[in-house]
Amino acid sequence: MQCRQCHLRNRADARTCTRCGAPLDTADLDGATTSRPAAPPTAAPPTAVPPTATPPIAVPSAPTPSTAGPTSAGPTTADRSAVPESATPGSTGPRETAIGEYVMGAGAATTSAQAPPRADATARIVVALGIVAVLVLAGGAYLVWLRPTSSTSAQPPASSASPSPGDVSPAPAESTAEPSPSPDLDSQRQAARSLDAVVVRSSQSRAKLHQALGFIDACRVPSAQGLFNQVVLERQGELSTLDTLVLDSLPEGEALRRQLAEAIGQALNADRAYQRWAVYLAGHGCRAGHNGDWTQAQAYDDQAGTAKVAFATAWNAMAARVGGGLLPHSREDF
């Protein structure tokens, strides 16, 4: 019996269409049995029969309404038209074809419903490739940043342009400024200057001693006595100052202190001998001549000279090493 809606030929005893479910008119059944003889069973066209290895018609997952709605509702009009009309009543070909079409439709709906995961995988691949590209670019930028540092530290900046024959390269300007001393060198210079200040004071006392001896030659014994007394006091003060100097930062400090103290101490002994000689002259007259005090003064003066030479030698070596404008000394300076 042929359905009026989908034109599917159903079994003769069917009351509803096996494809669309429309009720079949019994008059059509009578007409079909009286007017048309039963056609011999014919094989369905190969194109309408699904492959033999069809997926099991178990329970297809219900498609989502947005993508699989039309497919799950049943075969479309185009699918109905693909069913051959030559199937005989009682044949299972059209029914199997309809079921296969439904299964294929459900599979298509399932495939279309599973499309988003494939899009998600593609997005993940694109994101991964983007991350790799960013890492490669960052690594290249880091290498480019390191390259100038290593090249500039390995070799001096090249001004590779060779001068032409007519060019004259200016000579580098010589710096006359003295380099700034290190903290250790500066402390050594300060200690040496404090020692030099004592030498300067001793030099002034020596000048006064020579002036007092001149007063003796001029028979000005009282004036000479006053200067001798003053020189003795100054020498004592110089020794006291020398004893309080802090010379720890100067490697030669203690040796220079001892040598200068020896020189000033022997000079003080000579000054005291001259002082006693002046007292003798004051009592015996300026023309009394030399006595034992004057002889002792000469001996102390020679010992002071030897100590002064030793100090001056050590001082000049230290001043040349330390620098800072320190002047050399000799025996006649103090």
Describe the protein.
- With 334 residues, the chain is an all-alpha fold.
- It folds into two domains: 1-137, no CATH class; 184-333, Four Helix Bundle (Hemerythrin (Met), subunit A) (Up-down Bundle).
- The protein contains nine helices and no strands.
- It is rod-shaped and about 180 Å long.
- Residues 28-117 and 148-173 have low confidence and may be disordered.
Short description:
62% of the residues lie in helices and 0% in strands. The chain has helices spanning 26-35, 65-72, 77-81, 93-113, 115-154, 183-217, 221-244, 253-284, 292-322.
What's the total helix number? 9
The total domain count is 2
Please count the beta strands (DSSP E, at least 2 residues each).
0
Q: Strand-and-helix sequence, N→C?
A: HHHHHHHHH
Kindly report how far apart the N and C termini lie: 150 Å
Largest sheet: none
Can you tell me the residue ranges where pLDDT is under 50 for at least 5 consecutive residues?
28-117, 148-173
What keywords describe this structure?
334 residues, 62% helix, mainly alpha, Four Helix Bundle (Hemerythrin (Met), subunit A), 2 domains, single chain
Task: Indicate the topology.
Blueprint: H1 26-35, H2 65-72, H3 77-81, H4 93-113, H5 115-154, H6 183-217, H7 221-244, H8 253-284, H9 292-322
Helix pairs in contact: 2-4, 6-7, 6-8, 7-8, 8-9
